[in-house]
Write a structure and sequence with these properties.
456 residues; alpha+beta; 21 strands
Length: 456
Amino acid sequence: MQVEETTLNSQMIKSGKNFLGILNDIKRRPEDAAKELHVPLEEINEIIEGKRVLSSELVNKATQIWPVNARDFYIIQDDCPSGVKIMKFEESKKSSRIMDRAGKPYYEYRDTAMSAVAPFRPEWILELCYVDDNDPSNSNVQWNNGHFMHQFTYFIGEVNFYYKDSHGDKKVAVMNTGDSMYITPFTPHTFTTRKGAKNNGLILALTYGGKLTGDIQQELSGLSVELGSNFALDFSSKEVASASLIKYHRDIANLSIEELSRRTYIKIDELYSFENGSKIPSFIQLEKLAQALTINIRDLLSNDKIEDKVILSYHDDNQKWFYPENTKTYEFCELASTTALPFSKAFEVHVLNSENAKLDLESGLHQYVYNLGNTPISLNWNFDNIEYSEIINPNDSLYLKPFIKHNFRGNGKLLILRIGGKIAGDSQRELSIVGKKNAQRAISETIQWFDPKGKN
């Protein structure tokens, strides 16, 4: 009961700070908010101070008179106050459900560790459909329509992975334990077990939202499908992507090609060649273009590689290394990844026996962990200056918040997926520009934007 009360108080305090941030953004003092919302000033102050719950009725009033959305007022519920959330295998089994396709059992789904603060939607999926060949057009294979989530998959057993390539052609990849893959959103795909396998094939399908989910998706939706779709530039090749970026930035600045030529001293014909994709600017030319457009060079750079929508990674071909070098406590094996998502990292990690108590791991990414092995592993971590330790048994899974110092001890094998979520990348750069000194206020507002008593 006391834990629940403490959690409620913490949520009310966070909600109050968020409410103050909204008032600051729309330049309303507490007394202005009280007058416009037709509630006592005392009620507004109590909400800001975290002493009163922000009611849905008040939120509805606010959205009717202010240019804000209801979802702006609701904060994410922190369901792992110790920094880690663990899902035991027994709990996972209770979530089991059989999915039929074409009138026959096709998959058994189970949940694994998920958190409200994490971008993961990880699933344990048993392949109930058997096939006796590797034909991608096998009539027993039932396809999906793709989904709006990036997907990393780790394979256990003898599994056929079917997918449609960029031309819409059906393909099949013959996968085995330790193999992995990545697919982009909306790629149609499916999985089966190969005939003759000792056990049903199993996949750990870790789906996760990228930058487009949440606020970005809401903004695009608010603009309309037609208008929002215009933000999708042509990235079909490096040359076309470079051309699309240059033209987009020139258009939003309302610079004619002639004016851009005058500012950069680059000939008009050459600028046209940049914008029609027949030529990519040199780095010196990119510097001139960025300066003329008042942007950073990185804003004009296309991706280094234009990768396939499906990336296959075979275990025996993957790079392996020890970490840390001096203790060799872990052996890392790199799994499927894509340069399009630089803050997505996947590993198979062998935990080797160690008596060293040092918390030797820390990552600035959200982490999902699944115990792939047959032995328990000890997880030790520090959060808010409190030391924690939990046993992670085979088939248990967990979520770990970014920047938590931790270690794994024992002798076993883990699957680890790290995701940047919404913060890593452009958001991280913006927060870095705001600076560490002001980061706390950016995350959780503490004061009104001006002092009514004056400040010299």
